[in-house]
Amino acid sequence: MSEPIDPAGIQWLRVSPKLVQLRFLREGIGSLVILLLFALPLSFRLLGIWPGFPLWLAWLLLIGAAVVQLWRLLLIPRQVRALGFAERAEDLLIRRGLLFQKVLVVPYGRMQYVDVSVGPIERALGLATLKLHTASPGTNAAIEGLPAEQAARLREQLSSLGEAKLAGL
Protein backbone atom coordinates (compact mmCIF):
# COMPACT_ATOMS: atom_id res chain seq x y z
CA MET A 1 0.00 0.00 0.00
CA SER A 2 1.79 3.09 -1.20
CA GLU A 3 0.09 6.45 -1.27
CA PRO A 4 1.32 9.84 -2.55
CA ILE A 5 1.98 11.07 0.98
CA ASP A 6 4.01 8.00 1.99
CA PRO A 7 7.78 8.48 2.21
CA ALA A 8 9.64 6.46 -0.44
CA GLY A 9 10.84 2.96 0.42
CA ILE A 10 8.87 2.52 3.64
CA GLN A 11 7.77 -0.96 4.67
CA TRP A 12 4.69 -0.40 6.85
CA LEU A 13 4.04 -2.74 9.77
CA ARG A 14 0.38 -3.48 10.44
CA VAL A 15 -1.63 -3.58 13.63
CA SER A 16 -3.34 -6.79 14.67
CA PRO A 17 -6.44 -7.84 12.70
CA LYS A 18 -8.07 -8.40 16.10
CA LEU A 19 -8.47 -4.61 16.24
CA VAL A 20 -11.45 -5.11 13.92
CA GLN A 21 -13.20 -7.15 16.64
CA LEU A 22 -12.35 -4.55 19.29
CA ARG A 23 -13.72 -1.72 17.18
CA PHE A 24 -16.85 -3.71 16.28
CA LEU A 25 -17.54 -4.18 19.99
CA ARG A 26 -16.95 -0.52 20.83
CA GLU A 27 -18.83 0.88 17.84
CA GLY A 28 -21.57 -1.74 18.14
CA ILE A 29 -22.36 -0.69 21.70
CA GLY A 30 -22.32 2.98 20.69
CA SER A 31 -24.52 2.24 17.68
CA LEU A 32 -27.02 0.41 19.84
CA VAL A 33 -27.31 3.40 22.19
CA ILE A 34 -27.77 5.78 19.25
CA LEU A 35 -30.42 3.57 17.68
CA LEU A 36 -32.30 3.36 20.98
CA LEU A 37 -32.29 7.15 21.21
CA PHE A 38 -33.51 7.54 17.62
CA ALA A 39 -36.24 4.95 18.29
CA LEU A 40 -37.72 7.09 21.07
CA PRO A 41 -39.82 9.36 18.80
CA LEU A 42 -41.28 6.31 17.05
CA SER A 43 -41.95 4.58 20.37
CA PHE A 44 -43.58 7.70 21.84
CA ARG A 45 -45.69 8.14 18.71
CA LEU A 46 -46.85 4.51 18.67
CA LEU A 47 -47.63 4.55 22.41
CA GLY A 48 -49.70 7.71 22.02
CA ILE A 49 -47.39 9.78 24.24
CA TRP A 50 -46.46 12.09 21.35
CA PRO A 51 -49.48 11.94 19.01
CA GLY A 52 -48.64 15.11 17.09
CA PHE A 53 -45.26 13.84 15.87
CA PRO A 54 -45.44 12.71 12.22
CA LEU A 55 -45.16 8.94 11.94
CA TRP A 56 -43.21 9.16 8.66
CA LEU A 57 -40.61 11.41 10.33
CA ALA A 58 -40.23 9.03 13.29
CA TRP A 59 -39.55 6.15 10.89
CA LEU A 60 -37.21 8.30 8.78
CA LEU A 61 -35.15 9.23 11.85
CA LEU A 62 -34.79 5.61 12.92
CA ILE A 63 -33.99 4.28 9.43
CA GLY A 64 -31.55 7.14 8.77
CA ALA A 65 -29.72 6.48 12.03
CA ALA A 66 -29.60 2.74 11.26
CA VAL A 67 -28.11 3.36 7.81
CA VAL A 68 -25.44 5.72 9.19
CA GLN A 69 -24.51 3.32 11.99
CA LEU A 70 -24.36 0.37 9.61
CA TRP A 71 -22.09 2.35 7.26
CA ARG A 72 -19.77 3.20 10.17
CA LEU A 73 -19.56 -0.49 11.11
CA LEU A 74 -18.89 -1.56 7.52
CA LEU A 75 -15.93 0.85 7.29
CA ILE A 76 -14.12 -0.62 10.31
CA PRO A 77 -12.18 -3.41 8.52
CA ARG A 78 -10.89 -1.00 5.89
CA GLN A 79 -9.96 1.60 8.52
CA VAL A 80 -7.92 -1.00 10.42
CA ARG A 81 -6.13 -2.08 7.24
CA ALA A 82 -5.15 1.57 6.66
CA LEU A 83 -3.30 1.75 9.99
CA GLY A 84 0.44 1.23 9.95
CA PHE A 85 3.73 2.23 11.50
CA ALA A 86 7.37 2.10 10.50
CA GLU A 87 10.53 2.33 12.57
CA ARG A 88 13.35 4.28 10.96
CA ALA A 89 16.81 5.20 12.25
CA GLU A 90 15.82 8.65 13.55
CA ASP A 91 12.05 8.54 13.90
CA LEU A 92 8.84 6.54 14.02
CA LEU A 93 6.22 6.96 11.30
CA ILE A 94 2.53 6.39 11.99
CA ARG A 95 0.01 6.17 9.16
CA ARG A 96 -3.79 6.30 9.33
CA GLY A 97 -6.81 7.37 7.41
CA LEU A 98 -8.85 6.38 4.37
CA LEU A 99 -10.33 9.52 2.89
CA PHE A 100 -8.24 11.93 4.92
CA GLN A 101 -4.84 10.27 5.19
CA LYS A 102 -2.21 11.26 7.70
CA VAL A 103 1.42 10.28 8.15
CA LEU A 104 2.86 11.42 11.47
CA VAL A 105 6.63 11.52 12.01
CA VAL A 106 7.73 11.30 15.64
CA PRO A 107 11.49 11.90 16.09
CA TYR A 108 12.97 9.65 18.78
CA GLY A 109 14.76 12.63 20.35
CA ARG A 110 11.42 14.40 20.97
CA MET A 111 9.87 11.52 22.91
CA GLN A 112 9.50 12.26 26.60
CA TYR A 113 7.87 9.00 27.57
CA VAL A 114 6.19 5.99 26.02
CA ASP A 115 3.11 4.48 27.61
CA VAL A 116 1.30 1.18 27.02
CA SER A 117 -2.34 0.90 28.06
CA VAL A 118 -4.65 -2.11 28.06
CA GLY A 119 -8.38 -2.10 28.73
CA PRO A 120 -10.43 -5.16 29.68
CA ILE A 121 -11.61 -5.92 26.14
CA GLU A 122 -8.11 -5.31 24.75
CA ARG A 123 -6.68 -7.65 27.37
CA ALA A 124 -9.14 -10.38 26.39
CA LEU A 125 -8.04 -10.02 22.74
CA GLY A 126 -4.33 -9.81 23.61
CA LEU A 127 -4.04 -6.22 22.35
CA ALA A 128 -2.56 -3.00 23.71
CA THR A 129 -2.28 0.68 22.80
CA LEU A 130 1.12 2.35 22.60
CA LYS A 131 1.06 6.08 23.40
CA LEU A 132 3.96 8.38 22.55
CA HIS A 133 4.26 11.61 24.52
CA THR A 134 6.51 14.29 23.11
CA ALA A 135 7.63 17.81 23.98
CA SER A 136 4.87 19.17 21.74
CA PRO A 137 1.27 18.01 22.23
CA GLY A 138 0.82 18.27 18.45
CA THR A 139 3.17 15.33 17.89
CA ASN A 140 1.73 13.08 20.59
CA ALA A 141 0.65 9.86 18.94
CA ALA A 142 -0.89 6.47 19.63
CA ILE A 143 -0.82 3.10 17.91
CA GLU A 144 -3.94 1.13 18.81
CA GLY A 145 -4.33 -2.60 18.24
CA LEU A 146 -0.80 -3.84 18.75
CA PRO A 147 -0.27 -7.34 20.08
CA ALA A 148 0.61 -6.89 23.77
CA GLU A 149 4.10 -8.39 23.37
CA GLN A 150 4.90 -6.09 20.44
CA ALA A 151 3.64 -3.05 22.37
CA ALA A 152 5.88 -3.93 25.34
CA ARG A 153 8.87 -4.44 23.03
CA LEU A 154 8.22 -1.14 21.25
CA ARG A 155 7.84 0.69 24.58
CA GLU A 156 11.28 -0.48 25.72
CA GLN A 157 12.92 0.08 22.34
CA LEU A 158 11.41 3.53 21.78
CA SER A 159 12.21 4.61 25.35
CA SER A 160 15.86 3.57 24.86
CA LEU A 161 16.09 5.30 21.48
CA GLY A 162 14.44 8.42 22.91
CA GLU A 163 16.91 8.58 25.80
CA ALA A 164 19.89 8.00 23.49
CA LYS A 165 18.78 10.65 20.97
CA LEU A 166 17.92 13.13 23.73
CA ALA A 167 21.32 12.62 25.37
CA GLY A 168 22.96 13.30 22.01
CA LEU A 169 21.35 16.75 21.72
TrEMBL record:
Pfam families listed in its UniProt record: bPH_2
Domain YdbS-like PH: 81-158
Residues annotated as transmembrane: 28-50, 56-75
InterPro entries: YdbS-like_PH
Keyword Transcription: no
Superkingdom field: Bacteria
Keywords: Membrane, Transmembrane, Transmembrane helix
Stated name of the protein: Membrane protein
